Amino acid sequence: MPDAIQKQLQKDREWERLLDCMFGLNTLDRGVFRLLAESSEPLTVDHIAKFIGKERTTAYRSVKRLEETGVAVQEQESCPKGGYHHVYRTADPDEIADSLQHMLNQWYAETGQLIQEFRDIYGENHSSEIHQ
Length: 132
Known about the structure:
Elements: H1 3-10, H2 15-23, H3 27-38, H4 45-52, H5 56-69, E1 72-78, E2 84-90, H6 93-130
Antiparallel strand pairs: 1-2
Helix pairs in contact: 3-5, 4-5
């Protein structure tokens, strides 16, 4: 087995790294996801910014990345004195897992097709060259 594949297989596998790999999340996004997942109630961007020690715009960008990938959900919450604000929570874990499974299945199928293309191109040429 090639060294690159062996190194990948030997790396510590953690669910957080899976989110990084499959959804393209960075360290900050992963931290915000964990914060949302561990919170007993949805959080505002201001609360998230305070918890992570970053500017509001940085927290907002991270939350939006999580929302775009489908691992976080925005909700509208009414304020006691009128108006509303947005809060964020993690998406349903089963929905996230289903999305990950779908992505993995798609990758597997596409990789299988590429392997077959490789076999079709080089398998025939190689075997016909040997017999000449």
